[in-house]
Amino acid sequence: MDNRVRVLEVRNVTRRFGGLVAVNDMSFDVHEQEVMGLIGPNGSGKTTMMNLISGALRVSGGDIMMDDQLISDMPARHIARAGVARTFQLVRMLPTMTALENVMAGAVFGHKKLWGRALQVHAMRQLERVGMGTSAHLPTSALTYIDQKRVELARALAANPRIILLDEWLAGLNPTELRTGIELIADLRAEGRTIILVEHVMDAIRSLCDRCVVMNTGRKIAEGTPAEVLSDDEVIRAYLGDDDD
Amino acid sequence: MTRKEVIYAVLVLAAFAVLAFIPSLPNSAAVLSLVIPITMYTVLATSWALFSGPTHYISLATAAFYGVGAYMMAPALEVMPYWMVLPIAALSGALLAALVGAMTLRLSGVYFVIFTLGLAEMVRQVITWYQNNFAGTRGNYVFVDINDAQIYWQLLALALLVYLVGWLINRSRLGFAIRIIGNDELVARHSGINTARAKILLFMVSGAFAAVVGAVMTPRFVYIEPAMAFNPEVSFLVVIMALLGGVHRLWGPLVGAIPFALTWEVIASNFPAQTVLLMGIAFLLVVYYIPSGVAGIMEKVYFRARQQRREVSHG
Q1: Radius of gyration of chain A (CA)
Q2: Which domains does chain B have, with CATH numbers?
């Protein structure tokens, strides 16, 4: 595994909110074309970690490097231009725009800078890819929650990112949708993208993740293949609590 | 341009061509005293909505920009011809907007509103202080040979320009960026948009127009002093008219400015002591009853009619 190219390097990253340490001295690497799962119980700091990578939040300490750029020093827009795209835990649509316009928003100012006809065609293709081609001209308020999630993924893909951050993107899907979703993410890896996903759906973690980093109360408590970390004693304790004895 | 856009452009140009003949009407002096404020407020409200419509930042700085344009006319005329003052006024308005924008546009809504309201007052006080202490006079005489018809034509040209600029912005990347920002600033930043720069650029456009309008209007007053130039009433009226008309369409503020500017002429001449009270009431009525503006209502009616027609034709 280590002979692969390292794309993202998280070194001793800490984030404090007042007295609360949401992310505490986290370090891990993400390699090219890898699906890395960031898992852990609720409130363990996974989303905060994602926000630190995407630049939504600033680190309180430590460094995040993408290739040889220090992205923890950059504003979110520069990180986006460097090739990081994301979805949000609670879907964030642009409510006064159509589905197509939402997707177009991802491909104009960032890693990809399209305009005019090329932008339309590109955005349409992303929508078709997530199975939303027929809803392109609907206002986003007319879409179901799941469809909004798809549009959000299409928006992230429209930027043609090298690294995609998916924050519980598979949550709330029914079994059929889940299978489609898992295939879609596997496809994204096959085309050379690097994916970091925060996820609670164990099926998805087992079938998708090459590696997992497990967080609990802001710290990394385990790292390895899904099978390894899911049988780790400390991980089990973090999820299920201590034995009663 | 699509065919529809060409048709619109021709219609708009034709309308402006017809409007340009108003000064040759028989009783033109009286008509001009009505159409000048209407045209003025149309330009102010439309340029205000260029920025405040998509971003939802309610700016009360119109009077500050207007005042800067109005107030610089007299001293500027001593060193340069009239026509050169206008672009310089535009530049000053844009610079002031850039300064204010850089300081405040990172702030969220309420702080921005208060700051812009205070701005006009602050500029006015600074100028008053300066004139009292160093210039020896308060106010300036504006001696320039420009009649009402010429003022009206200039305002008309500005209106045409504001529509052209608005149309160009709406189809530009800047226009798209600002719509995204107005929808969700976090998404905008994650899409690679420099949100501060986009907002400041648009605020500068808005400020430049208001400053030029101020400069163009000055010759009407002959004598101008800070209280006239930096009148907060202008800021509030512009907001009311733009909201009344609707800020989601370029033509929205127009349908607000025409009826309201007319009404305001009646109010100002018949109830000069109650203007502030009536302005407040108008503000409340607009915000409560027509939050999406006349343009919003018109569009809703139009869509409903079209939908019904479609249902009928589908049997």
Answers
A1: 18
A2: 3-313 (1.10.3470)
Calculate mean pLDDT across residues A220-233: 93
Average pLDDT, chain B: 89
Is this complex scored with an ipTM above 0.95?
no
- Across B177-201, b (16+ Cβ under 10 Å) vs e yields bbbbbbbbeebbbbbbbbbbebbbb
Handedness of CA A92, A98, A100, A106 (dihedral sign): negative
Do the Cβ atoms of A94 and B179 come within 8 Å? yes
Cα distances (Å, whole numbers) of residue A40 to A195, A218, A224, B161, B287: 17, 10, 13, 58, 47
- pLDDT-derived band at A189 (thresholds 50, 70, 90) equals very high
Best mutation target, B190, B199, B247, to test chain A (most A CBs within 10 A): B190
Answer whether B190 sits within 8 Å of A75, measured CB to CB. no
Q: How near does any CA of chain B get to the CA of A101, in Å? A: 9
Please report, for chain A, the start and end positions of each structural domain, with discontinuous segments joined by +: 1-83+162-245, 95-160
pLDDT tens for each residue of B32-60:
999 999 999 999 999 999 999 999 899 99
Burial A67-106 (b: 16+ CB within 10 A, else e): eeeebbebebbbbbbbbbbbbbbebbbbeebbbbbbbbbb
A105 contacts B190? CB cut-off 8 A: no
Which homologous superfamily is A1-83+162-245 in?
A: P-loop containing nucleotide triphosphate hydrolases (3.40.50.300)
Instruction: Read off the pTM.
Output: 0.90
